[in-house]
Amino acid sequence: MGKSILITGGVRSGKSRHAEERTLVLGQPAIYIATAEAHDAEMADRIARHQARRGPEWRTIGAPLDLLGALRDTDSDGAPRLVDCLTLWLSNLMLSGQDWEAASDALAAALPDLRAPVVFVTNEVGAGIVPENALARAFRDAAGLVNQKVATASDELWLCVAGHPLKVK
Amino acid sequence: MGKSILITGGVRSGKSRHAEERTLVLGQPAIYIATAEAHDAEMADRIARHQARRGPEWRTIGAPLDLLGALRDTDSDGAPRLVDCLTLWLSNLMLSGQDWEAASDALAAALPDLRAPVVFVTNEVGAGIVPENALARAFRDAAGLVNQKVATASDELWLCVAGHPLKVK
Amino acid sequence: MGKSILITGGVRSGKSRHAEERTLVLGQPAIYIATAEAHDAEMADRIARHQARRGPEWRTIGAPLDLLGALRDTDSDGAPRLVDCLTLWLSNLMLSGQDWEAASDALAAALPDLRAPVVFVTNEVGAGIVPENALARAFRDAAGLVNQKVATASDELWLCVAGHPLKVK
Q1: PANTHER family attached here (chains A, B, C) (predicted)?
Q2: pLDDT in tens, C58-96
Q3: B140 to chain A: closest CA residue
């Protein structure tokens, strides 16, 4: 069965770059599964910078909501997949009123049955002061739970600190 | 003397569940020392979910302010104690105008003399951007200091990341 | 060549105290390179508390902007330097309109050529919820990048958790 790896860390901790390196070691060409949608200029700029850094060894597909479907659709050819990132996927699910708990449970339950490897990027968003905004509190609670579910179902868990990965599991 | 263990991490990082598992390994039945007070519906809901997850192997007592007193009162029978959590205790001390520095110094100083083991849960609240709110800044400074004092007096220190504990000490 | 060490962590995680200990092991007397400027009473109070903790084995110089110049000026006598901290240096650069990317690239590029050791303190500011304030978002992105650059050019990288250092590299 395909290996699953979760890479977490704060913003600009080198998660995406490390995840790309890990994915390309697992096989080339690789598939980049983008969960981001360019809602505003700041996000569009960030997506463009990320794409510019990746080279021709990547094929990119978008999966803002149906992440498990995208993983299943790309599972047969054995190419490693990079999912960047789980917190944006969660945000898309919440904003579109979908059941993020059921979706993340289904994702975690399906991981052991995937044949091709998958590397997930996620974010640490719960190590600051409690936000005054109730939606922000709900989001960081949900992000922590999604990270736990996927980490438990994954073979490896890494925490990126200042660009360097620290093995947790 | 009883072992002391401090388990820290961001919100929803699996701290409480890991602390419960560690405590029950140290002995059963165990004593759950709750520092939370149900000030609002959101907190009441969180407390109820935590209690529902714990089973009959737990006896629960509340200690929103006199945590050291609760530890001393429950020290003679040898049952392990789980304190959940230090940041709520600190918040209660600050809100009631008590001297949290003296209280946390006394707690740390007393730890080596306790006979029954104790597992503390606390929160990482200082890895986000500097809050604009002065009280929030004071709280995260205080939480960091309390965590340092208790960690230094404890035998073990663990950081939970996405549900998985990482040994720091 | 002089060893470079980067020590990161959340607020009140014991970074400065640990960095001072590491620096004094590398040689005495040591040079404290302060990047802080006392803009307000809260910061002045924090600087004063930090200075009071340090003893006569330290010589203090200020380098709010030209950090690389200060490192070069103090490089010939071989005394270890402690830079506290990179995030304040970054903040000073941004507030004065200087090119922080060029400055941090130059700093990272120069590190391998320094003869005397240097210990850097920095802050984890990117593990909370995304700030609503655009300047705060830009700052935490920049801080993450500066930390990555300096960590990559350093020989050691440590994460402080509740007063205890965890080796990342």
Answers
A1: BIFUNCTIONAL ADENOSYLCOBALAMIN BIOSYNTHESIS PROTEIN COBU, PTHR34848
A2: 999 999 999 999 999 999 989 999 999 999 999 999 999
A3: A129
Quote the tokens at residue C169: 């590299």
* C136 touching chain B per CB within 8 A: yes
Q: What gap in Å lies between CA C134 and CA C137, rounded to an integer?
A: 5
Which pLDDT value is given to residue A40?
75
Q: Is A74 helix (H, G, I), strand (E, B) or coil?
A: coil
Kind and range of the H or E run holding B82: strand B81-84
Please indicate whether, in this complex, the C-beta atoms of A164 and C151 are within 8 angstroms of each other.
Answer: yes
Contact residues, chain C, for B129 at CB < 8 Å? 125-126, 128, 131, 136, 139-140
Tokens 């103090």 belong to residue: C74
CB A154 within 8 A of CB A120: yes
Provide the token pair at C117.
Answer: 């050791």
Asked whether B157 and B151 are in contact (CB, 8 A), the reply is yes
- Annotated binding-site residue numbers of A for GTP: 9-16, 34-36, 84
C157, A140: Cβ pair inside 8 Å? Answer: no
- Which residues in chain C are closer than 8 Å to A88, comparing Cβ atoms? none
The DSSP call for residue B5 is E
Residue B27 annotated as lining a ligand binding site: no
**Fold adopted by B4-167:** Rossmann fold (3.40.50)
Domain coordinates in residue numbering, chain C:
4-167
**Contact residues for C104 (Cβ-Cβ < 8 A; gap 6+):** C90, C145, C146, C149, C150
Contacts of A77 (CB under 8 A, 6+ apart): A116
Pick from B129, B131, B162: CB nearest A148: B162
Q: What is the pLDDT of residues C105-125, one digit of tens each?
A: 999 999 999 999 999 999 999
Catalytic residues of C: 50
Three-state DSSP state, A13: coil
d(CA C63, CA C71): 9
Position A30 scores a pLDDT of: 97
Chain B residues close to C12, C-beta within 8 Å: 126, 140-145, 147-148
Residues of chain C contacting residue B152, judged by C-beta atoms under 8 Å apart: 163-164
Three-class SS state of C143:
helix
- Name the average pLDDT for chain B: 94
Question: B104 in contact with C at a CB cutoff of 8 Å?
Answer: no
Give the residue ranges of DSSP H helices in C74-163: 86-95, 100-110, 134-153
- Specify the long-range contacts of residues B142-145, CB closer than 8 Å, at least 24 apart: B142/B90, B142/B94, B142/B100, B142/B101, B142/C12, B143/B86, B143/B87, B143/B90, B143/C12, B144/C10, B144/C11, B144/C12, B144/C13, B144/C162, B145/B101, B145/B104, B145/C12
